[in-house]
Amino acid sequence: MTDARPTKRVRRLRNWRERFLEQLAQSSNVTAAAKAGRIDVSTAYKTRRKEPAFAAAWQQALCEGYEALELALLCRLREGEPANAASDRKYDNAQSIRLLLSHRDAFGRGKAQESAEDEQAVIDRINSKLDVMRERMKRADKARQAMNGDSDA
User: Fold this and answer.
1) Quick one: average pLDDT of 19-41?
2) Is the four-CA dihedral 116, 120, 126, 132 of positive or negative sign?
3) What DSSP state is assigned to residue 38?
4) pLDDT at residue 43 in the model
5) Lesser CB count within 10 Å: N end or C end of the chain?
6) Is the separation of the CB atoms in 65 and 100 below 8 Å?
7) Nearest to 102 by CA among 28, 20, 23, 24
8) What is the band of 61 on the pLDDT scale with cuts at 50, 70, 90?
9) Are 37 and 57 in contact (CB under 8 A)?
10) Residue 12: pLDDT above 70?
């Protein structure tokens, strides 16, 4: 006898990637992000392996998530825990610090690669700004000399 029960097929959302990445940036949690996108965690990992653009967006979302965690932790450390008695939420600052430290190198490298520029381009940009500043200083000196009636202007 065969099982005559119909199998329930869950339709994947067309925009699951966007939902997944939004939740990943908010939570830094792949499982929670997969749930938000209504996909299996394995689908997310397979897509990351197959699609370089999705892998880059995944990395960016995690960087954003860890930056948000770092900012929230710094705020709690500076200002203390909220004195709201209605809130039962307890923060584990030590665990947050451990998590940030364990991911700092990986995401720090990713962030550095994002903002890496050619050394010569940086030097050229600095020199250009210095030239503008020098020109401004020359004009200011000439204007000052003209106001003082110096004939060397």
Assistant:
1) 93
2) negative
3) T
4) 94
5) N
6) no
7) 28
8) very high
9) no
10) no
